[in-house]
Automatic annotation (TrEMBL):
<feature type="transmembrane region" description="Helical">
    <location>
        <begin position="21"/>
        <end position="47"/>
    </location>
</feature>
<keyword id="KW-0472">Membrane</keyword>
<dbReference type="GO" id="GO:0034220">
    <property type="term" value="P:monoatomic ion transmembrane transport"/>
</dbReference>
<keyword id="KW-0812">Transmembrane</keyword>
<dbReference type="InterPro" id="IPR036291">
    <property type="entry name" value="NAD(P)-bd_dom_sf"/>
</dbReference>
<keyword id="KW-1133">Transmembrane helix</keyword>
<feature type="transmembrane region" description="Helical">
    <location>
        <begin position="134"/>
        <end position="152"/>
    </location>
</feature>
<dbReference type="InterPro" id="IPR044849">
    <property type="entry name" value="CASTOR/POLLUX/SYM8-like"/>
</dbReference>
<feature type="domain" description="CASTOR/POLLUX/SYM8 ion channel conserved">
    <location>
        <begin position="274"/>
        <end position="368"/>
    </location>
</feature>
<dbReference type="InterPro" id="IPR010420">
    <property type="entry name" value="CASTOR/POLLUX/SYM8_dom"/>
</dbReference>
<keyword id="KW-0407">Ion channel</keyword>
<dbReference type="Pfam" id="PF06241">
    <property type="entry name" value="Castor_Poll_mid"/>
</dbReference>
<feature type="transmembrane region" description="Helical">
    <location>
        <begin position="89"/>
        <end position="113"/>
    </location>
</feature>
<keyword id="KW-0813">Transport</keyword>
<dbReference type="GO" id="GO:0012505">
    <property type="term" value="C:endomembrane system"/>
</dbReference>
<protein>
    <submittedName>
        <fullName>Castor and Pollux protein voltage-gated ion channel component</fullName>
    </submittedName>
</protein>
<keyword id="KW-0406">Ion transport</keyword>
Length: 635
């Protein structure tokens, strides 16, 4: 062999060894095993060829010599009984090689285990799961989302929720354990990483996931990170062929169009600020409405399902709506996936169209075998109520303030007044630039401390028809903002008591845990913003049509939810069943989905203020003039 060839061989061997060193623990163990085998073969060959053996003169074969060498490689004490200096010399060399190899092996295994444990602690190991839900980014909404998914997962086998955010894995696990509580049969897996990075996303096995929820992170530019995360998911070169089911949260409406372009039909977009603003406005005009939305979004009560109902094909929608005893038909999803809520009663169900139904669970959705029984003589003619100008007061301000003011302008009668009072740095500039939708809607603003009793007295609060209290969430933490809201609500309660009249108050809360404290203020309704966004994202991850359904429910051009006097629909001088109320609503082009019936002795375990959605339609119930019917209507 030439000198050049020998040099190339050594360089190649060194290259392979260096590459194995970089490959990890398994490769290093392989190299050490190879060294041991080489030493054993050389020693065995030398002993068998030279005839060197123990002093007892017994012949030494290659196999016997290899076994003797192996024993001395593995255990240094084995050579203690050797005889003959020649044999002892060979055994000593083999033993020294064994000491080196096994010391290195123990060190390699120890380092490998330590590195693996460190990798697990940091949350960088790959997730090997199927049909799991992935949550990307971290925000206050994550705890409510996990709580809802835990309820939804109870009927599934081995459900898993995988969370990835730029936080320490152990810190995430401890915080979830402290704030979520009972996980039932669901297991939470946390990983640390950047959800916008393709390598980090691959750790979560998105190709085998059931759904993906992308939260708006607590950063300076959250919408950009959400859009980039969705972009990484849908454009991953190694992505699956089947479409993903993505529910993404966007705060600013201006970024919605870009997000929709990126996500396409694989993504449902939840516009958080827009959703909260519309529900705040609707709830301020109809006490108890936020409880209706919470019930429809909460997995613990009645939910909205979109499913095939072959028994409805060929039926007009009006007749189909009266075909259920324990469910409420509210719309149709056509063959192109477009949602139609409260369609014309004469619209016929076509083959391939899905029914949109409110039910306690999908197993309870069954068409009744018997026709519905209605007391038609209890149905009253339509009552037309004239709208009058309204006075609305907003106390407090945040980034949703302009959206709320604009949304409010769409519903009030000409001649209405909106007064806004707050003291945030940007408030005066934003309030002065508000342009009401319609010349008959005027806006007034005051820069005051909304927690001050003297400042509130100067506003003459009892003269307003509706009062909205917004949290200062842009400049304070959730707890601080809710604390100031509570102080304002307590002041309003005292003002109402002193005036001897009821003041209609709806308040925005940030943290759901503060709602119980706020109930002592006797406000009419509380809109818990983080909770509603969480419920919406959780529902959208399970129902691919949910974002569009709620988009129409909250759109002024679509069918919306109203609470109206039940005595306008049916006679209340006798008990009636809900089939009768539903028929009365259908004759007005509306769908009755429930009622609000408040009694001192009635249990309200779910804290819904007497709201019942999707009641059993055959039960006979007595109502009075204060009870309300919940309908889906176009005006």
């Amino acid at each position: 062999m030439s000198m050049r060839t020998n040099t190339n061989w050594r360089a190649r061997l060194r290259y392979e060894f260096d590459k194995s060193m970089a490959a990890g623990t398994v490769a290093l163990i392989g190299w050490l095993a190879l060294v041991s085998i080489v030493v054993i073969i050389i020693a065995a060959a030398f002993l068998s060829l030279s005839g060197i053996g123990p002093d007892d003169g017994s012949p030494v074969t290659f196999v016997e010599a290899a076994w003797e060498s192996l024993m001395r490689t593995m255990d240094a004490g084995t050579m203690g009984g050797d005889q003959g200096w020649s044999f002892r010399g060979v055994s000593l060399a083999v033993t020294f090689a064994g000491i080196f190899v096994f010391s290195a092996l123990i060190s390699v295994i120890s380092s490998g285990l330590e590195g693996k444990l460190d990798e697990l602690r940091k949350g960088r190991s790959h997730v090997i799961e199927n049909d799991h839900t992935i949550i990307l980014n971290w925000s206050a909404s994550i705890f409510d989302i996990i709580s809802e998914l835990v309820i939804a997962n109870q009927s599934r086998k081995r459900p898993r929720i995988v969370v990835m955010a730029g936080k320490d894995k152990v810190e995430m696990e401890e915080e979830i354990a402290a704030k979520v509580g009972d996980l039932k049969n669901t297991r939470i897996i946390c990983r640390s990483g950047d959800p916008t990075d393709l390598y980090d996303l691959a750790i979560l096995s998105p190709q085998t996931s059931r759904s993906v929820i992308v939260l708006s992170p607590e950063t300076a530019d959250p919408d950009s990170q959400v859009i980039k995360t969705v972009l990484a998911l849908v454009n991953d070169p190694n992505r699956r062929a089947a479409p993903y089911k993505i529910a993404a949260e966007i705060r600013g409406g201006a970024n919605a169009e870009v997000a929709r372009i990126v996500g396409g039909r694989e993504m449902q977009l939840v516009l958080a600020d827009d959703l909260i603003s519309r529900i705040v406005v609707h709830s301020s005009r109809q006490a108890g409405l936020s409880a209706v939305y919470s019930e429809l979004l909460d997995f613990d009560g009645c939910e909205i399902y979109t499913l095939d109902q072959p028994g409805l094909i060929g039926k007009p929608f009006g007749a189909a709506a009266m075909s259920y005893d324990s469910s409420t038909l509210i719309g149709i999803c056509d063959t192109e996936g477009k949602v139609h809520l409260n369609p014309s009663p004469n619209r016929v169900f076509a083959p391939g169209e899905k029914a949109i139904v409110i039910a306690e669970d999908d197993a309870s959705i069954r068409i009744s075998a018997a026709p519905s029984v209605c007391a038609k003589d209890a149905i009253l003619p339509v009552v037309v109520r004239e709208r009058r100008p309204e006075r609305t007061l907003i106390l407090g301000w945040n980034r949703r303030g302009p959206l709320i003011a604009t949304e409010l302008a769409r519903y009030v009668a000409p001649g209405s007044l909106l007064t806004i009072a707050a003291d945030t740095p940007e408030f005066e500039q934003e309030a002065s630039s508000l342009v009401a939708a319609g010349s008959s809607f005027s806006v007034d603003y005051r820069v005051i401390d909304t927690s001050s009793r003297a400042a509130l007295d100067a506003l003459d609060v009892p003269s307003y028809d509706h009062v909205l209290v917004l949290g200062y969430s842009d400049h304070m933490s959730a707890q601080s903002a809710d604390t100031r809201t509570l102080v304002t609500l307590l002041q309003l309660r005292k003002i109402a008591e002193r005036a001897g009249r009821h003041v209609s108050v709806v308040s925005e809360m940030i943290d759901v845990r503060n709602r119980e404290l706020a109930e002592v203020t006797r406000a009419d309704d509380f809109v818990v913003s983080n909770k509603l966004v969480s419920l919406m994202l959780a529902q959208a991850s399970e129902n691919e049509y949910m974002a569009e359904i709620f988009g129409e429910l909250l759109d002024e051009e679509g069918s919306e939810i109203y609470l109206r006097p039940l005595s306008d629909y049916v006679a209340i001088d006798r008990p009636v069943n809900f089939h009768t109320i539903a028929l009365s609503a259908l004759r007005r082009g509306e769908i009755a989905i429930g009622y609000r019936r408040q009694r001192e002795n009635d249990p309200d375990e779910r804290n819904l203020g007497g709201v019942t959605v999707n009641p059993n339609r055959n039960d006979m119930i007595s109502f009075d003039k204060n009870d309300m019917v919940i309908v889906l209507a176009r005006d």
